[in-house]
Amino acid sequence: MNAGYGMGFTKSKRQYITSLWRYLKPGSSSLKKIALLIKRVNPEIIALAEIDSGSARANFINQVDFLKREGNFAASIFQCKYKSKPLRKLPVSKNQGNALLAKRGLAVSHKFHYLSYGVKRLMIEAEFKPNFRLFLVHLALGHRSRQRQIKQLLRYVKDLEQPVIVAGDFNLLKGTRELDSFLKEGKFCSANKNHQPTFPSWKPKKELDFFLVSPRIKIKSFKVLPDIVSDHLPILLEFEVDKG
Length: 244
Prior knowledge:
Elements: H1 15-18, H2 29-41, E1 45-52, H3 63-70, E2 75-80, H4 85-89, E3 96-102, E4 107-114, E5 122-128, E6 132-138, H5 143-157, E7 164-169, H6 180-186, E8 189-190, E9 209-213, E10 217-224, E11 235-241
Parallel strand pairs: 6-7
Antiparallel strand pairs: 1-3, 2-3, 4-5, 5-6, 7-9, 8-9, 10-11
């Protein structure tokens, strides 16, 4: 889920301009809506892009800890999405990142990687029971940087022996063909087989958010949820791991 830092852009593109104050102080109503959605769906693992770990803009609320507590998760993983040292030190941007939350007994280990291109470079690699790896990404807005990121991501995952899920906001503004080489060379497939759009949430037109799965991840169901809690619609994957 792209949580949009809880800023509550859920109505129109105009809202990005008319509600500029939300960039400084978004309030907590959108965060509470996200928490209610998580309680209702009750996922075992949740991947979050654009989450705030407690800046002044978020009223010093650590959104990761808040959702962990509200959703009754046992483990949380958070990292700032910027590799640049100046951005990692600025009062707001140092708290901007991505996170994973997991129920008790699922999380095994995790690593943080920074891709070589773009501004948003973070890739979280986590191992979960029963023996699969999940990579969470939030790729660049620029086409050239994004294509370089996708190629680098492929090098990380294509030779792994464990089953793999790659999740996140891919920002495929030029369409899903941007993923053709990744899917073919890595032998991955998208869980969103009908290419349901996820952005913008109020009138979805673009498919930006993905679960990409390796052959030993067996998809049981995939849904684009209709809940408008940010400018992206959340997606839900139910799966099994083939032990091989």
